């Protein structure tokens, strides 16, 4: 092979290499253009995301402001609702202002409730007449309590307070021996307490739960209002609503070794069901259960119609 042939072949190879380089250059330019397009898209996307983030931040600030405003409004509404509930409870208790509840008084079939109250009144030196009462009635008898409390409502509040205070002064001496000719050595005490409305009683019961848990020292009622003491010697707190009791739930437990009972002398043996039914004045009617005839009696009645008997059959 001559030198001319070698050069010609070399030129051919150089031409192939040049074509390959040109192809690579074209592909590189295409990739560069595509990369530039992607870069532009990413830049545009970043701008859009940044704008969206700024918009979201502004919206979040607006929502936070609205949320704070709504939270304040909710607090105001809660306070108004609590205030209205307190007013409703107070208005309900007004109808109970002249009422008292007497418990542990023995029950009889033909009892005269006025005579019972008069006997107690004479003993505590507070004379009463039938005209002094708006009504007197005993709550319905149930299985858990055979001698339900007696509810009495005085016409005048002054007489109710006088009767209550005189009873309270002799509370250790007022017992079931007053109504029995056969005196016993250990008679049952008769208790007096204010007759609370449903809402007031429920609030009072929640306070009693705190007392049992050791969160408060004592709880009592006075003229339909509920008072509590955190510790012995502390100032009494008037309980107008449940919010007053809520702050005591997380407090430390107090010593209940000398925990006082109800200042009104309410008998704690009364059941919740009984106390919640204090509005009821009508005695429950006993259901009459009609006896179903026995199978033998039914067969005998059917056979007698046809002139037959069970033995004959």
UniProtKB/TrEMBL annotation:
It comes from the Eukaryota. Pfam families: Baculo_FP_2nd. Residues 200-247 form the FP protein C-terminal domain. InterPro entries: FP_C. This is FP protein C-terminal domain-containing protein. The lineage of its organism: Eukaryota, Metazoa, Ecdysozoa, Arthropoda, Hexapoda.
């Amino acid at each position: 092979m001559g030198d001319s042939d070698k050069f010609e072949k070399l030129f051919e190879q150089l031409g192939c290499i040049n074509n390959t380089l040109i192809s690579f250059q074209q592909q590189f330019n295409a990739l560069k253009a595509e990369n530039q397009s992607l870069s532009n898209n990413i830049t545009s996307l970043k701008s859009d995301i940044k704008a969206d983030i700024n918009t979201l931040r502004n919206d979040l600030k607006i929502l936070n402001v609205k949320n704070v405003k709504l939270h304040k409004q909710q607090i105001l509404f809660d306070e108004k609702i609590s205030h209205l509930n307190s007013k409703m409870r107070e208005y309900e208790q007004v109808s109970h202002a002249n009422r008292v509840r007497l418990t542990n008084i023995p029950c009889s079939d033909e009892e005269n409730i006025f005579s019972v109250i008069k006997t107690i009144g004479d003993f505590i030196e507070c004379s009463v007449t039938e005209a002094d009462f708006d009504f007197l009635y005993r709550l319905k008898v149930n299985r858990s309590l055979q001698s339900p409390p007696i509810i009495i409502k005085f016409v005048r509040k002054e007489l109710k307070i006088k009767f209550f205070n005189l009873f309270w002064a002799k509370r250790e001496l007022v017992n079931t021996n007053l109504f029995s000719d056969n005196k016993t050595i250990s008679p049952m005490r008769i208790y007096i307490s204010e007759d609370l409305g449903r809402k007031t009683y429920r609030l009072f019961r929640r306070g009693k739960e705190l007392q049992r848990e050791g969160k408060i020292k004592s709880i009592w009622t006075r003229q339909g209002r509920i008072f509590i003491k955190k510790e012995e010697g502390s100032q009494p707190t008037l309980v107008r609503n449940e919010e007053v009791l809520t702050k005591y739930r997380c407090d430390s437990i107090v010593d209940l070794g000398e925990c006082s009972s109800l200042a009104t002398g309410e008998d704690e043996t009364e059941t919740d069901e009984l106390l919640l039914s204090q509005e009821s004045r009508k005695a429950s009617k006993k259901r009459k259960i009609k006896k179903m005839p026995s199978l033998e009696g039914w067969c005998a009645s059917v056979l007698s119609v046809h002139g037959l008997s069970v033995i004959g059959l």
